[in-house]
Amino acid sequence: MVDQARARRLAKRISAVVATAIEYEIKDPRLRFVTVTDAKVSGDLREANVYYTVMGETIDAEPDYAEAAAGLDAAKGVLRSKVGAGTGVKFTPILSFTLDKVPEVAREMEELLARARAIDDEVAKVAANAKHAGEADPYKADRDDEDE
Fold this sequence. Notes:
The chain is α+β, with helices and mostly antiparallel strands. It is about 55% helix and about 15% strand.
């Protein structure tokens, strides 16, 4: 039987242990700009998928995803031993790392929303000066006929 609450607690603990180990204990320069965002554990608690993002050295710099992935792959054994020591579970989960696309998707959504706002502003400007094509009350003539 799968205990989803236990799997969630373990995933949260794994993400904290991995993030702390990357920040303070592993001295690989390829992992300087790696941030752990989430972790998911399989129902049998044997596999853990750790999601991460990579930031550039500056705001304008493009992140080096390949180097970060290589650094995480190289540190996988050390991180797994840290997870085993930090969680105390009977079987330490096998770690796999997945690049988290949420920041890129969020940036794309922000760009789409900005374009939609610009188009809405243009439509509002056109609508402000617009006039009705016909009379204000096109059914006025029909009501006058009914009164007679």
